[in-house]
Amino acid sequence: MTTAFASPSTYVQGKNLLDTAANYIKPYGNNGLLLTDEIVWGLVGEKFYKTLTDAGLDIEHVTFNGESSPEEIDRIKKIGESSNAKFVISLGGGKTNDTTKAVGDQLKIPVVIVPTLASNDSPCTRLSVIYSENGEFLKYIFYDKNPDLVLVDSSVIAGAPVKFLIDGMADALSTNVEAQTVARARETTLLPLQTQQTAAGLALAEKCEELLFKYGNQAVTAAKNHQVTPALEHIIEANTLLSGVGAESSGLAAAHSFQNGLTALSGDVHKMSHGQKVSFGTLLNLVLEGASDATLEKYLKFEHDLGLPTTLKDLHLEDASDEDLMKVAQLTTQKGETIHNMGFKVTADDVFEGIKAVDTFAKKFEGIE
């Protein structure tokens, strides 16, 4: 058995961290690119840029066009080549991060990720999700290493709408559920060369879940009021570091396969965030592996209290036909999906019945039926 663990070289988190970010970036060189979209530039980017340049760094601001596409990656790569950039910084959300990782990989220069949201765990991972210029999913790209530096300014995260924090909590909630599934099945992780979990990777997934249940309500209350508190700091770390490293080094199972399976359908379901879709998938994962009533109710309550989707109606699929749900189930179980890490054979029929079971039990739990 070969095990593996991967993480960013350095992770730093704290209030008003952008003010001192140059101290952490300077070891990588004196000139680089700063990738942001126009919205982030107006909110915090321009001030961050001035902080870096005032500290003596030569920074070229590049406006991100919004899609982590091969064309956008190539465009930014050429800018980096012409300026002989020594590093590339992402300031923004998931697609900005993914594009920055790809540029850094192609230029073979350090990657610095500065997330402005705690809505997903992309900042710490060694992969990018690549889309066409029209926003259609194309592929995943896996890299040889994780980002060199991740800087998380908790005051920036607290300043964002709370729904983004909740989205990140939903995604993070799946981390340990899927990690434990993979552990029982002794299946492989997301890391290359079919490696298995280390005790460290599994421990991070467990700590991620512990923090969510321990500090979640406090953190959401603080974020609603744009306050940085110890509870919020814990949840930011859970959403960003522990979920990212925990999932990558511990593996995925049914929750994320279900999220991918939803692409079989069109319509309002795709107005839901990644975390919202995964939240239903977490319940499906539990049902498929035969979780007890008490366990399922524990996760249902957590998701319900946060306003996350637990029924088909919540996913805008209340009118979905059995044929539609079977399409989701078939795509969820296609070859190569992580649902095959469950440790037992999972068919499209199993997933179809599981989806129905989650919906029925959630409605009963919430007093709808």
Automatic annotation (TrEMBL):
Binds 1 zinc ion per subunit. NAD(+) binds at residues 37, 94-98, 116-119, 125, 127, 131. CDD domains: GlyDH. The keyword Mitochondrion does not apply. Zn(2+) binds at residue 274. It is an enzyme of class 1 (oxidoreductase). Its EC number is 1.1.1.6. This is Glycerol dehydrogenase. It comes from Lentilactobacillus kefiri (Lactobacillus kefiri). The gene is gldA.
